[in-house]
Amino acid sequence: MTGNESSGLGLLGFDSFHFLVSDMQRSHEFYTKLLDWPLVAQAGKDLTERSAQQSNVYSAGDIRVVVSTPLSDRGRAATYLRNHPDGVSSISFRVKNIEQTWDFLAPRGATFLTDIETYRDKDGGAYRRFVIATPLGDLSYRFVEKSGYDGFAPEFENLPLEGSSSSPSNRLGFEILDHVTSNALTMAPVILWYREVLGFDEYWNIQFHTEDVKKGGEHGSGLKSIVMWDPNSQLKFATNEPLKPFFRESQVNIFTEENRGPGVQHIALRVPEIIPVVDEMNRRGVKFLDAPSTYYDNITKWLSEKHVSRVREPLDDLRRLNILVDGEDEKYLLQIFMRDGHQLWSDAKAGPFFYEVIQREGDPGFGYGNFRTLFEAIEQEHHSAKEAEVEMESRPVG
Predict the structure, then answer these.
(1) DSSP 8-state class, residue 290
(2) pLDDT tens digit string along 206-227?
(3) The domain boundary residue, chosen from 123, 158, 193
């Protein structure tokens, strides 16, 4: 094994992700008013003109999202949005040494979209990056090395923060980006790419179908999911594919149809205390998926079977807020899923992407028992929406 092989990609963590949208004002209000993520940087004039898109950076904790919208019919944002609804177009990672990362990827068959680019700020700080393609449609991965570089990225201008603090306000307590989940009609090429090109290992997998329980139903939804991870940085990436029967009805397939291809389904945002966060987000107007009504009736028994005897959060609060709980061997996690953009804004252009909010109490997993619950909730949302459409179409005109 070579030195580059043994050190791997040299990932330090997530740097940011890039979200392309058709309505910048709506996104601005979502991040600043609903999530309390302040606007911390904007693309400068030259970059805006050259890219033909407006770009804002919002931040909370160690999470940064770049939101861009096209200003004309040319440029990357315009091209992406001609082919897709709003969605994640790239994910950026901080690395220890950009040459090490490049040298690790090159012999493993990575498809480079740029060479290593180096920029320096006025104080001599260095920002270095390159971009590779992924097997997830139009999603790309960017690797970034920063050394004494103060800004967000080249040709972005930092904005003054409110008050005297040197860090942005984060009253809801968002900490880090926990994991990324993508959907594809076939995940074998994605898993192969994570393993053979990025050098990741398999962390976890699951396979289930709602048909497993109800047997002989007229519809259902299922998936296969594999989580790959980089053991050094502990960054995790889940990939889902549909599972028969009712392959076409699977919410994974529905996502790929609405997204017009594979892509990032959701990003999980970690918080230290989920109950006050969800309470406040509800107050601000964020909409979450409802858990099935029977979920909490059996949760105490189910957790006991998994040797989780102490969940310090009150069950009544979890039920009231539709927060899911899972765990094993006295460790647990709490999670909840926002409604997707299409549902949140009643606009298909807003896309099927959504956010997860997660609190970890020692459990590093993905909520095995909650996967089925999430699927049942999303499936119910899709069927309710379909029934509403049929009802509207059947109403007399005039």
Answers:
(1) P
(2) 887 766 555 556 667 788 999 9
(3) 158
